[in-house]
Amino acid sequence: MLLVTCAYGKVGRQIVPYLAKKGFDIRAIDMNPEIKNFEKQGVKEVLVGDSRDAKFVAEAMKNVDQVLYIPPQFTYQEAKMGKIAIDAAIDAKVQKFVYLSCMYPNMSTLLQHRMKAEDEKYLLYRDFESGLDWTVLRPSTYHQNIFMKLFYDMGQYPSMCDIDTVVSWVDPLDVADCAAKVLTEDGYKYAIYTCSNETMTPREVAAVMSKVSGKEITPISVPEDKLVEYWPDYFAGSDSFATETFYALHNSYNKWGWAGNNKQLIELLDHKPRSVENWCARQLKAAGIEPAVKVADTE
């Protein structure tokens, strides 16, 4: 049995049904009651609960062989939640723990990266004490941040950073394939992998969107005082940490970008990495729009 945490968040909703189709027996946990939708998508068990609650997490770990730990997004309790999961996995004597971190967790200007760096360090030291078999995957920016149908309708691609800033991208299904490999094959104990594919500017991403859709999509750089208009979920109803994290993301990307290397992703995958072009085409098809160009499944 594979336990997946934060399974109904933005990352989990992409990864969990895909892994279920690949044959994993999954117990998915999330505080969102809509996680029960997974029962119709081949997920064996779903549990609704708060992963800040150590008793709930310990109960969820029972009879689990493996853990795919997906962290929560933009919460000041992220590091605490990671430590709870690591401790519970050790107590339950799970055979494999895969931590889904982020590229460059030591980039401390990004507040959510500080949390992941703290959890990675905790995982290392707890392993020294327990012998837990772990692997860390460090994804770059996920493709699901390209809301193809929305941007197609808008005719714009809004970016939180300058449109000529370089950012690396990765497809969530490629990350799922990497997770599947390290969960099922030997040789990945105590290993850390960067999961990053194409490095592109927002201007280049918009050009790909235009090519795939057959409609001109213009990249725009959203100034700091307009961020709330484009990404209201991070401001309306969120706590101050989420808001400050988003501003820090905006400022860090503008100053340094977030470029990575794709060598380790290519080595882990048994196929060509899925491209931004591939993602855009898939999203258009899902929305009932035929792409203007034919795009291969994994290139």
Automatic annotation (TrEMBL):
Phylogenetic placement of the source organism: Bacteria, Bacillati, Bacillota, Bacilli, Lactobacillales
Domain NmrA-like stretches: 2-279
Annotated signal peptide: none
SUPFAM superfamilies in UniProt: NAD(P)-binding Rossmann-fold domains
Species: Secundilactobacillus folii
Entry's transmembrane regions: none
Record protein name field: NAD(P)H-binding protein
